[in-house]
Amino acid sequence: MKKILGLSILLLTYTSVWAQMNPSFYGVKSHYGFIIAHSPELKPISQTNPYGIQLEYSWLKTSDKAWKTCFCYGRSGFSFAYFNYANPDVLGSSYNLIYFVEPYFTYRGPLKFSLRGSIGATYLTEKFDEETNPENLLFSTHFSFYLALSINLNYHINDSYAINLSANYNHISNGGQKQPNKGMNFPTLSIGVDKVINNTPLKRKPKSLRSYDTSFDYYAGAFASLRSSDRDAEASNHLLIGFMGGILKPISGINGLNAGIELWYDYSDREIARQQGINDSAFSSAITAGHHFSIGSFYFLQQFGFYLTRPKNIQGNWLYQRYSFWYSIGSSKRWTIGASLIAYGKVADHMDGRLIYLIN
């Protein structure tokens, strides 16, 4: 009993000290938006206005060590969001568990401007069914992935409360695990309020902390996914496995440029070629170039990929976009795990998991 009491006192003391040093936020916000019909067949089911509510908890570390991870102040946290797509029979609604990071670009005074990146998992109440729900070409699995990018204005009314206004670009897709998978892109405008615990004025850090390494970093890794062998209907999944390498060039504390090469073999393409009698290889290769944000242990990459080789009878596009999220693990921060989404124009194609090694 004494040990339990002592441990409880220790935990309470640590929590109290941590709370005194770091502000935390309990928030609620409402969403209202619209669905982007990124292909003609989606227009009949995209004429609605999704709405929702989001609950969240976040924290902001103010130490010099935390500030140096991105040369900025920033929040991170978890949220739960409910979205209703205003089409109950076809699209239903979704329940989303989300992790986010939110660096501040301005923080002096009561008004703060920030950018938030979010990633999570979603449960969709309605999905495609050839007989009972053939119109829903957006979702074919109950469980999918959630990605979002938000621009935020936060205004602190006082030390205890803040209001916020956000423009959000939300995306839901199953990553190509099952077809059809057009994916939903739905921008929303949200307004909310935060309860602030232990509000701390954010002060400008000394110039001695602002130096950052501008030398090249190199990366190498592997990625894998499961893809349907029928792009337009339900079918069995097949392995996609690939390798990649490239360079990362910091140009500021959080911004950088990147370039690389990707090679992969897609067994679903091989199956399609076999079924259709096409003399196409399932091997693809591409060079990539783009921009990335580096915030502490997180990397957010936006790249264009230019095919060098591809199964031209199956894949008619020669250019793609890739959006990646990496997280560095371990004490050395050399190993990273992550995921990426490949898209052609406005159409999301598939997601994969990634394991990368960084060479400094």
Automatic annotation (TrEMBL):
| Segment forming the signal sequence | 1-19
Q: What is the lineage of its organism?
A: Bacteria, Pseudomonadati, Bacteroidota, Flavobacteriia, Flavobacteriales
Instruction: Cite the InterPro entries for this sequence.
Output: Lipid-A_deacylase-rel, OMP/PagP_B-barrel
Q: Could you state a single Gene Ontology molecular function term? A: hydrolase activity
Keyword Zinc-finger assigned to the entry: answer is: no
- Which keywords does this Swiss-Prot/TrEMBL entry list? Hydrolase, Signal
Q: What is this protein called?
A: Acyloxyacyl hydrolase
